[in-house]
Sequence to fold (292 residues):
Amino acid sequence: MSIAVTGTSGHLGRLVVESLLARGADPAQVVATARTTATVADLADRGVQVREADYARPETLAAALAGVDVLVLVSGSEVGQRVEQHRNVIDAARAAGVSRVIYTSAPRATTSALVLAPEHKATEELLAASGLATTILRNNWYTENYVGDVLGARESGELVSSVGDGRVASASRADYAEAAAVVALAAQGDAAAHAGDVYELSGDVAWTFDDLAAAASEVLGRPVAYRRVSPDEHRASLLGAGLDEGTAGFVVALDGNIRDGLLAETSGELTRLLGRPTTLLVDGLRAAVSQG
Fold:
């Protein structure tokens, strides 16, 4: 009755494996898959099964999922290619007889105007059509997404954004990873546990960019202010910093989503799964900055 986690060379997948082990999973019953197994060789030294699995190479997936009971499908990172890549994993899971797929999706993926939602919506539809038992974990924003902005503010003393007064209910990657481990272990022990459930996961607090600036000030030990700019000003600034038109447009669109409140929901579901409060913004930033 093994649990497989995909994308374990990435931040979230690796943390899911760590959470499984911390919660008492038998390492021999944990399968860590990665595109390049050398990046997770240390997990093999701890007794975890390490297997090659490349979302874009279906021939690697059958062996990777052999004997797997519960699969944590961490969404791919290649925007624009994820639907087909996820389809490959779902097809392989069905062929391998996987009894549960736990998928890391996006907030309100099937109904949201969030710029990142369409590929997650399509993946959820693939899972629904697959006949596989599923649990959908719709992860809100990761606090770590703002580490680059905070580090930049060390020199500039400001955070520049077009989010206006929009709020973000972020939590740390470790929080979301632990939730995935909780669900996976429950599903391993009871086929009915969390079956068919869709969780809207978020931090306990929806913070503003003024709050982000205050947290950055505390982490950096220097004053940081939030400077509001218009979407057009933001785009021009990003282009001036060397971003290409597509990337700049994506960032501005995402800030518009935040401005419109699409990442502001605080459902409490992540705290309920964890049995503890989510990581505070300042604590998540401090931990991430210290690691960076």
